[in-house]
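The instructor's notes for this session suggest beginning with a concrete chain rather than abstract definitions. Hand out the sequence below and ask the class to guess, before any prediction is shown, which regions might be ordered.
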Amino acid sequence: MSSTLFIQQMINGISLGSLYALVAIGYTMVYGILRLINFAHGDLLMVAAYAAIYGIALFALPWYFSFPLAIVFTGLTGILLDRAAYRPLREAPRISLLISAIGASFLLENLALVMLGGVPRPFPRPDFFGKVILVGGLHVQVLTIYTPLITVVLLLCLLYIVYRTRAGKAMRAASRDFEATRLMGINLDRIVAFTFLLGSCLAGAGGIMWAMKYPQVNPFIGILPGIKAFVAAVLGGIGNIMGAVIGGFLLGLSEIMIVALMPGLAQYRDAFAFVILILVLLFRPTGIMGEPIIE
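After discussion, reveal the predicted structure:
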């Protein structure tokens, strides 16, 4: 492989990994507080993509208004999920929450299928993001450059909220000891709802960038990237924000580079994520930055 092609594939891997990282953060935030794998989280990518499409097509909004509004709508959908599917089961066994999460995922997918139809719709990607820049023999799409930059900016905003605000302090306290935090007078329902809001907004941003990268939207587009983001969260150490980011970038890079180095395995590209998941669970169940959980 030539150095130019290697750099090209590295850029593609970083761009893909940043998308996985955005979605993985939502998984790891919810798990950190509730010890819940929110399997409906991946479907929020689909919600954001459809919201952006309808904002542009139905309300004639420019993309720079439609995309932020779609992200906010996705965040509110995350709060609604918590209120309807998870909060009533807060004191129930964890298996009940897990089953509820799976049911919420099926509900979102089938609601979209019934209300919006199963025919894939083209995503209105702005022409600016589709431009290709030629740099020293590299053909780099503008979207490929902006995706990791947007991810870094959103990550910095999230870290500021988590480590520099009262709500973030309460989130960190709840992740350490849920019951003790409640006894200290903190409204845990609000903190959990705020966590769902942040995680869902990040998933919404990831969903819009995913739809611009692969501009065909259907009710099931969130399933595979959602599962891969879950793998990234486990790889980095689920419950750890920076671990989720590292896991996302590692998964994206490995997925692209393995196919680049061994083109004959391109048809098994999606299987690599599950192989990585099995290996992590076998040899380091807590992930790269995860800590053992004492029940």
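Then share the key points. The first helix runs from residue 3 to 34. The mean pLDDT is 90.
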